[in-house]
Amino acid sequence: MIVKKKSAESYTVMNELVLPNDTNTLGNLMGGRLMYWMDICAGMAAQKHCNRIVVTASVDNVSFKQPIKLGDSVMIEGKVTRAFNTSVEVRLDVWAQNLPAGTKIKSNEAYFTFVALESNGQPVPVPELVPESEKEVALYDGALRRRQLRLILGGKMEPADAHELKALFMASQED
Ligand SMILES: CC(C)(COP(=O)(O)OP(=O)(O)OC[C@H]1O[C@@H](n2cnc3c(N)ncnc32)[C@H](O)[C@@H]1OP(=O)(O)O)[C@@H](O)C(=O)NCCC(=O)NCCS
User: Fold this and answer.
1) 101, part of any domain
2) If you measure from the C-alpha of residue 118 to the centroid of ligand 1, how many angstroms do you get, rounded to a whole number?
3) pLDDT tens digits, one per residue of 47-62
4) What is the DSSP letter of 29?
5) Ligand 1 center from residue 56 Cα (angstroms)
6) Is residue 114 part of a domain?
7) Is position 74 within any domain?
8) What pLDDT does 175 receive?
């Protein structure tokens, strides 16, 4: 069994065209529809890394910076940034493209956490992720702090145990 994998091995890209049934009454893509597509893209990236059935455990804060319009193409790129024991963090970058105009703008970024499951529904260990580029190392390092924050918010960790997250705040106070 392969126990170490690269981030690139989970790279997933998904394209969708915004059609009338995807929009609100202003003709903008509905946030819930975008989240649905993001969950699918992130889930595929997590499955590529884990080679297991995965379930969404949590989604970090997502803000929609600007509307995506009817007729735009949405491109979602996802890859695993870090693997823990039975869970992985997936980063998504979402772009809105106006294909006739040839424009492309960043819509948002998000982090999803997936847990790999055995056929009996029990969490199962996942392969380790080895970051390669400088950017991958930065995402890998940050993943530990993001994990601590989401576990505190999810009621799964005591704030006092989030040492790396606390160190970040202490460092910024010293600046
Ligand atoms: C996700 C789920 C499997 C976790 O089960 P659990 O009993 O809490 O399991 P554990 O406490 O053993 O945790 C398993 C992993 O989940 C992670 N986890 C649990 N809750 C989490 C949360 N809110 N955010 C991020 N990770 C979380 C743990 O950190 C652990 O990861 P690790 O092994 O890498 O450290 C379970 O809550 C579940 O099945 N949820 C429903 C998933 C689902 O149906 N998603 C679709 C939404 S409808």
Assistant:
1) yes
2) 13
3) 999 999 999 999 999 9
4) B
5) 8
6) yes
7) yes
8) 57
Q: Is 115 in the pocket of ligand 1 (CB under 6 A)?
A: yes
Q: Is the CB of 168 under 6 A from ligand 1?
A: no
The number of folded domains in the chain is 1
Confidence of residue 170 (pLDDT cuts 50, 70, 90): confident
What is the rounded CA–CA span in Å between residue 96 and residue 109? 12
Dist CA 147 CA 60 (whole Å): 10
8 vs 79: CA distance, rounded Å:
7
DSSP structure class, residue 67 = P
Q: What is the CATH number of the domain that holds 51?
A: 3.10.129.10
**Looking at the whole model, is its pTM more than 0.90?**
yes
* Ranges assigned E (strand) in the chain: 4-6, 12-17, 53-59, 73-83, 87-98, 103-117, 128-130
Average pLDDT, the chain: 94
Task: State if residue 91 touches ligand 1 by the CB under 6 angstroms criterion.
Answer: no
Asked, for residue 118, whether it belongs to a domain, the answer is yes
- Average pLDDT on 149-172 reads 87
